[in-house]
Specification:
alpha+beta; two-stranded antiparallel sheet
Length: 183
């Protein structure tokens, strides 16, 4: 079945004419808008701003001189003119058919001695036998310190084993408080 075209429905035929008419109308509207626009009364047409005077200065061209490289130090000559003697190596024989045994066994790893676990925070703090009174009775002052009346506080850190024996004791802090109290 042949297609029947209606010549009135063909838009491509009139496309060029519609484009030209719309272009003429839009340009004529823009020209009319510029011609009929009101003039601004504040503009002075004879206004000429003062001209700026520009002075031209001749600038002397400078030449950047290259920095010379630092001088190379002279080689240091040794004080002796002796030439070391050549050492000769012994001839080495290589046996390609020789049987090589397995490598030696690695040495046994060193035995690690386990250090005892030291508890810093314990459930029940150790107490000296006899209390502080027993410690004060066993405090030893030197004769010179006793005569001078010097005293102070010593902080000692001690490690105590399971039976209550002191294993290791170190002095942590010593503060000289001044004069010893007289009892």
């Amino acid at each position: 079945m042949p297609s029947i075209k209606n010549y009135r429905a063909d838009l491509r035929g009139k496309h060029r004419r519609y484009f030209e008419i719309s272009l003429i109308l839009s340009l004529s509207l823009i020209i009319a808008a510029f011609k009929l626009s009101p003039k601004d009364g504040n503009i002075d047409e004879n206004f000429n701003p003062p001209q700026e005077l520009i002075t031209i200065e001749n600038i002397i061209n400078t030449v950047q001189k290259p920095i010379p490289p630092p001088p190379i130090p002279a080689p240091v000559l040794s004080g002796t003119d002796e030439v070391p003697e050549e050492t000769e190596l012994d001839d080495v024989e290589i046996y390609m058919d020789a049987q090589i045994g397995p490598p030696p066994a690695p040495p046994d790893p060193p035995i690690k001695i386990e250090e005892p676990i030291i508890f810093v925070a314990v459930e029940e703090m150790p107490k000296p036998i006899g209390g502080l009174k027993a410690i004060k009775e066993k405090v030893f002052y030197t004769e010179i310190g006793r005569r001078a009346g010097i005293g102070g506080t010593v902080y000692i850190e001690a490690i105590i084993d399971e039976e209550g024996n002191v294993i290791n004791a170190t002095v942590k802090k010593v503060s000289a408080a001044g004069w010893m109290r007289k009892h």
